[in-house]
Amino acid sequence: MTAAITFNPSEIIDVLDLNGLAYEEQAKLQTVVDLFHKGVAELRTLIEAGSILFCPVSQGKDSTICELMALEAYKQALEAGTIESQRPLILTTVNTLGEAIPMTMYVSYARKRLIKYAQENGISLYYDIVKPPMNDEYFIKFTGGQKLIPNDNWDLPDGHGTVDLEIDSGKEKKKRKK
After folding, report:
1. Over the stretch 132-157, which tens digit does the pLDDT of each residue have?
2. What gap in Å lies between CA 53 and CA 68, rounded to an integer?
3. How far is 14 from 50, CA to CA, in rounded Å?
4. Backbone angles phi, psi at 60, to 5 degrees
5. CA–CA gap between residue 135 and residue 178 (Å, rounded)
6. Strands 88-94 and 53-56
7. Which residues lie closer than 8 Å to 29 by C-beta, 6 or more apart?
8. Residue 108 and residue 151: Cα distance in Å, rounded?
9. Which of 58, 63, 93, 124 is deepest in the core (most CB within 10 A)?
10. What are the φ/ψ torsions at residue 124 (nearest 5 degrees)?
């Protein structure tokens, strides 16, 4: 629960008791910590040069690491006084309306905690959860037949409705058979 509020990779890895792990595993975990700090340093370089970070996040494993690096970079830069407190960090999650209910719930759960963490650390965080317009929702496209695969019996114009799947329509197949 606290991983979304505060994050220090060294503390997380310490929980694993590095002394009890094989040397090779320790080295791999230390590599992860080093890569995290390197990512934070690179993001700090960007924001200290005047950039505004925009991070699309799904709250999955990969995007969460990027999100945590961005938050840490902002926190460090603010503490060092190298960026102004108004500099926004923009996070966006797209709710495809096709995710499992627990994942949708987790995104809202994490968002609330990230906003609180940002406020506590003076980070100007903008975090939106957006969704596609109704006509682009997967359910609408699927039930409307826009995601169905045409067959040889359909009388479709050449290439109609087949662009996404890169297949020939039934009409094209019939032409080749002649």
Report:
1. 776 666 555 556 555 555 555 555 55
2. 12
3. 35
4. -80, -175
5. 39
6. parallel
7. 13, 16, 18, 21
8. 41
9. 93
10. -85, 85
Report the residue count for the chain.
178
Torsion angle in degrees (nearest 10) through CA of 56, 58, 59, 62? -80
pTM attached to this predicted model? 0.64
Give the whole-angstrom CA distance, residue 24 versus residue 12: 18
Extract the tokens encoding 118. 């940002």
What are the distances in angstroms from CA 92 to CA 67, 72, 110?
Answer: 10, 17, 12
> Tens digit of pLDDT for each residue in 20-67?
666 777 788 889 899 999 999 999 999 999 999 999 998 888 999 999
Residue type, 128: D
Contacts of 63 (CB under 8 A, 6+ apart): 55, 56, 57
Buried b (16+ CB within 10 A) or exposed e, 107-124: beebbeebeebbeeeebb
**Whole-number Å distance between alpha carbons of 127 and 92:** 6
Cross-strand partners of 94: 130
Whole-angstrom distance, CA of residue 71 vs CA of residue 47? 11
